């Protein structure tokens, strides 16, 4: 394909994208295909000769789109959403076109410098403590700063590696076997994965209870840490979550941070979904004590209109991160002391992700982003009100941010599972589920970029109708 055909095809592709966005609400939200559907539809080897782009696009329409679960549907209420927006998409396009691999400053100075600047911008919008910003209020470079990772899982791993490097400084290598990491059992499984990858032998996932709104109890943590210290282990890493995946529970940062400080632990705050809500001053209460954390991460690709991937990680002090991850082979050695983001992440290569974040922050501004978040919070409040108003349902956790967890009251796990499956099978809405205190729980998560009240109303009506079918007329 030469550049002139690309020019023509590119314009067609933008049309295709626009048509997709304006009609996505008509498609079944959850893909209706069965596992293995694609293999019989495609040849078993790549073509010997190049094919026309028309043929390729025709296969996209007939074979690929039916196998897509439409995360951009306004009736997608499962998991946490993957936001997309026109400026986010345009940023992705431009970054793809430039196709830089900005692992060190010299490989693309603008990509490194823009990333540092927009992470300071976003950090200020979120009200992060100054220590997390690259440039402090005095205009001077500090020890901290932000970096864009691909996912919150990577951020949790990278923070763990920094914590380990800090804890192991001056210790014999065999002490690594005595390191112990902590979180609640509501923390995302990426914490467990980070421990697996890093060879962290001891991990405590402390039980969060319903009577503490599924948050980690500092007293339980204290008891676990003291028992481990008495047994000769070395506490080194604590993950506190601001908005857990199951129910959006918020761990109490201040007492946890004080405890972490007493025991020399690194506290990472995983705010993958809910962190961006801190753009709203009224949502910041749960971040009290954040200045005690060593790192904080939030995914702008979940709820801030930035296309996947854009997980923003800030550290108060970048040195332990660099000590853990910096390795410069001869062919990468450069002069000077410019910031090389390869030393802040696991891979070497990195995309120019700051561009799309910059486009989004500039296009919407603080006021636009605040209005967007408040819109979803208001919609979630209507779902909460409906759960409360229908005696057949109960809330399974205090609603937080734009997530409502609920279930059929007094019904079995199987009945609740049947309810959600009957809703999802229609293709008219897509909800997901979790387990809270061994009980099957439905999750209604509202953060789709195109979601309006009519979509929420229709989805709730569908849930209510399916509940009526399931429970029978006597329960109406
Ligand atoms: N942490 C929390 C609290 C999450 O909710 C999620 C995903 O929903 C993750 C981590 C993992 O996110 P990622 O896919 O960016 O690794």
UniProtKB/TrEMBL annotation:
GO molecular function: carboxy-lyase activity; pyridoxal phosphate binding
Positions of post-translational N6-(pyridoxal phosphate)lysine modification: 302
Keyword Lyase carried by entry: yes
Superkingdom, taxonomy of origin: Eukaryota
Keywords annotated in UniProt: Decarboxylase, Lyase, Pyridoxal phosphate
Gene Ontology biological process: amino acid metabolic process; carboxylic acid metabolic process
Cofactor(s) named in the record: pyridoxal 5'-phosphate
GO cellular component: cytoplasm
InterPro entries: Aromatic_deC, PyrdxlP-dep_de-COase, PyrdxlP-dep_Trfase, PyrdxlP-dep_Trfase_major, PyrdxlP-dep_Trfase_small, Pyridoxal-P_BS
Signal peptide: none
Similarity comment text for this entry: Belongs to the group II decarboxylase family.
Protein name: Aromatic-L-amino-acid decarboxylase
């Amino acid at each position: 394909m030469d550049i002139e055909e690309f020019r023509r095809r590119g314009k067609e592709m933008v049309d295709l994208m626009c048509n997709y966005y304006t009609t996505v609400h008509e498609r079944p939200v959850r893909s209706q295909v069965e596992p293995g559907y694609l293999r019989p539809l495609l040849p078993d080897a790549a073509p010997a000769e190049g094919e026309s782009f028309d043929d390729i696009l025709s296969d996209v329409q007939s074979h690929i789109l039916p196998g897509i679960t439409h995360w951009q549907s306004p009736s997608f209420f499962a998991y946490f959403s993957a936001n997309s927006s026109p400026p986010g998409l345009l940023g992705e396009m431009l970054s793809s076109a430039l196709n830089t691999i900005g692992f060190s400053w010299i490989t693309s100075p603008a990509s490194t410098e823009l990333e540092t600047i927009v992470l300071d911008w976003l950090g200020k919008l979120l009200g992060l403590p100054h220590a997390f910003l690259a440039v402090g209020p005095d205009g001077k470079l500090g020890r901290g700063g932000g970096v864009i990772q691909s996912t919150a899982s990577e951020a949790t791993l990278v923070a763990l590696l920094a914590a380990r490097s800090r804890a192991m400084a001056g210790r014999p290598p065999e002490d690594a076997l005595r390191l112990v990491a902590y979180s609640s059992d509501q923390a995302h499984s990426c914490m467990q994965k980070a421990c697996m990858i890093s060879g962290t032998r001891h991990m405590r996932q402390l039980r969060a209870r319903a009577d503490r709104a599924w948050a980690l109890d500092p007293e339980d943590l204290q008891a676990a840490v003291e028992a481990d210290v008495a047994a000769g282990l070395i506490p080194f890493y604590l993950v506190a979550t601001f908005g857990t995946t199951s129910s959006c529970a918020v761990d109490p940062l201040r007492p946890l941070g004080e405890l972490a400080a007493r025991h020399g632990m690194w506290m990472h705050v995983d705010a993958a979904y809910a962190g961006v809500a801190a753009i709203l001053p009224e949502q910041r209460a749960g971040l009290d004590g954040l200045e005690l954390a060593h790192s904080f991460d939030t995914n702008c690709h979940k709820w801030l209109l930035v296309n996947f991937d854009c997980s923003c990680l800030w550290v108060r002090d970048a040195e332990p991160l660099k000590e853990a991850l910096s390795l410069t082979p001869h062919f990468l050695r450069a002069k000077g002391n410019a910031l090389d983001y390869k030393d802040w992440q696991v891979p070497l290569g990195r995309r120019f992700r700051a561009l799309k974040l910059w486009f989004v922050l500039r296009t919407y501004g603080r006021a636009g982003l605040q209005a967007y978040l408040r819109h979803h919070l208001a919609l979630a409040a209507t779902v909460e009100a409906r759960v409360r108003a229908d005696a057949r349902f109960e809330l399974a956790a205090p609603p937080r941010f734009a997530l409502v967890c609920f279930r059929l009251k007094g019904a079995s796990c199987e009945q609740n599972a049947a309810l959600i499956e009957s809703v999802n099978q229609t293709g008219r809405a897509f909800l997901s589920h979790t387990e809270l205190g061994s009980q099957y729980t439905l999750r209604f998560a509202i953060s789709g970029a195109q979601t309006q009240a009519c979509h929420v109303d229709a989805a709730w009506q569908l849930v209510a109708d399916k509940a009526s079918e399931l429970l029978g007329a006597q329960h109406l």
